[in-house]
Specification:
With 220 residues, this protein is α/β, with parallel strands linked by helices. It folds into two domains: 3-94, Methyltransferase, Methionine Synthase (B12-binding Domains), Chain A, domain 1 (Orthogonal Bundle); 100-219, Cobalamin-binding domain (Rossmann fold), CATH 3.40.50. Helix content is 55%, strand content 10%. It has nine helices and five strands, in the order ααααβαβαβαβαβα. It has helices spanning 8-22, 26-38, 43-63, 69-87, 113-124, 138-148, 164-175, 193-198, 208-219, and strands at residues 100-105, 128-131, 152-156, 183-187, 203-205. A five-stranded parallel β-sheet has the order 2-1-3-4-5, sandwiched between helices. Helix 7 links the parallel strand 3 and strand 4. Helix 5 (113-124) crosses helix 9. The longest helix is centred in the first third of the chain and has 21 residues, at 43-63. It is globular, with a radius of gyration of 18 Å. It starts with 7 loop residues before the first helix and ends with a helix.
Length: 220
């Protein structure tokens, strides 16, 4: 089933779910999710349409100053809760494996706000996210990526002095014969698309919304 197969009433219900998530109205969002299940609407469409669109709109509110980090955390938790309601009603044979992303701020850098925002957006976008925190060494990233069988390693740097540690992860992956196993996306205040290309990264995210779009493109 595709979104185009739904009636206008069913599409309206998905829009209402999206809006409830964006408003961080927990009771309303959960009620609508249950209603979607009772009306036999394909839960996978609701996840792809309502939750994914809500993630983008929440990110936009953060960018324009209407929302702050606590709002993002609450919205992310609500997306998880609604997603669980919908996923529990998907037949096991139709459940797709989530793409896995290991994310963190590189060695020597203690900044977390930007990284947290990206992690929240990626999680809301349907990825399984393992947040390693800040001041993460190259080998720690790589070991975790191997452990969880990650599809991508996302590296944040907010200091020009720590940007070389993004390159170090890529070089270490190559030295260990693992470079082809993981996509690598980089970002952070001083990081540019040109720099990402120069160090051999697969992708670059200027902000959380762009990072989500890039991850979807690289892991589609």
């Amino acid at each position: 089933m595709q979104i185009s197969d739904l009636s206008s009433e069913e599409k309206g219900l998905l829009d209402t779910l999206r809006d409830a998530i964006v408003a961080i109205d927990e009771d309303r969002a959960k009620e609508i999710a249950e209603n979607i299940i009772s009306q036999k609407i394909d839960p996978t469409i609701a996840i792809r349409y309502s939750i994914a669109d809500a993630a983008i709109k929440v990110g936009e509110k953060f960018d324009n100053g209407a929302y702050f980090l606590p709002h993002l955390v609450m919205a992310g938790d609500l997306m998880d809760a609604v997603g669980a309601i919908l996923e529990n009603n998907i037949p096991a044979e139709k459940i797709e494996r989530k793409k896995i992303i290991v994310i963190g701020t590189v060695q020597g850098d203690m900044h977390s706000v930007g990284k947290n925002l990206v992690a929240t957006m990626l999680k809301a976008g349907g990825f399984e996210v393992h947040d390693m925190g800040v001041d993460v060494t190259s080998i720690t990233f790589i070991e975790k990526a191997e452990e969880v069988k990650a599809d991508m390693i996302a590296l944040s740097s907010l200091l020009t002095t720590t940007m070389p540690y993004q390159k170090e992860v890529i070089e270490d992956l190559g030295a260990m014969g693992l470079r082809d196993q993981f996509k690598v996306m980089v970002g952070g205040g001083p990081v540019t698309e040109v720099y990402a290309r120069d160090i051999g990264a697969d992708g670059y995210g200027r902000d959380a919304i762009e990072a989500l779009d890039e991850a979807k493109k690289l892991l589609s």
